[in-house]
Amino acid sequence: MHFTPTAIPDVILIQPQVFGDHRGFFMETYQKKKFAAGGILADFVQDNHSGSRQGTLRGLHYQIRHTQGKLVRCIAGEVFDVAVDIRRSSPTFGKWVGARLSAENKHMLWVPPGFAHGFYVLSEWAELAYKATDYYAPEWDRTLLWNDPDIGIQWPIRPGTQPLLSAKDQQGKPLKEADLFD
Question: What is the pLDDT of residues 22-62, one digit of tens each?
């Protein structure tokens, strides 16, 4: 596996080694020793799987307590995956990074605790599978506004379209009003 820190070094792009032949492929998606050597010391407690149609934007989600680190991969289709640093004490506070994750490139993104996470579906259909470092706690679930101009995420939204948003995501809080980490 190859671990590459992004412009926000705590967020890491992971490129697994893929073994393929005429029958298909095999890859290891997680091994604790390799992840520790790559700078990711996490214990995962929950696996999640979501499916979304083209144009769907999910996020930006986080839990203010019972914070979750997420190891995200796209197992069908393609998404633009985003992490926003919402740790006030961080030198990259309010900054974001994005990566294209797809079933084809098989890349994964490590989004550590202290970040809001979201994605936009580029393909007709996409499925994400991700591991989380803490359990879902709805009472601590928060949503950061996906299009907050103070963050300025450059979502690759198709011209002339609006993203498909849940009611929860439409009501996300701007960074100035959100519950944040110290």
Answer: 999 999 999 999 999 999 999 999 999 999 999 999 999 99
Which tokens go with 23? 């029958």
Percent of the chain whose predicted confidence (pLDDT) is above 90:
99
Of these residues, 30, 49, 61, 120, which one is catalytic?
61
Q: Which residue type does 57 have?
A: L
- Is residue 61 part of the annotated active site? The answer reads yes
**Total structural domains within the chain:** 1
Q: What is the CATH number of the domain that holds 111?
A: 2.60.120.10
Domain containing 26 equals 2-170
pLDDT tens digits, one per residue of 106-147: 999 999 999 999 999 999 999 999 999 999 999 999 999 999
Spot the catalytic one: 2, 66, 130, 136: 130
Distances in Å between the Cα of 82 and the Cα atoms of 30, 60, 95, 153, 154 are 21, 8, 10, 8, 10
175 belongs to a structural domain:
no
What pLDDT, on the 0 to 100 scale, is given for residue 152? Answer: 98
**130 catalytic per annotation:** yes
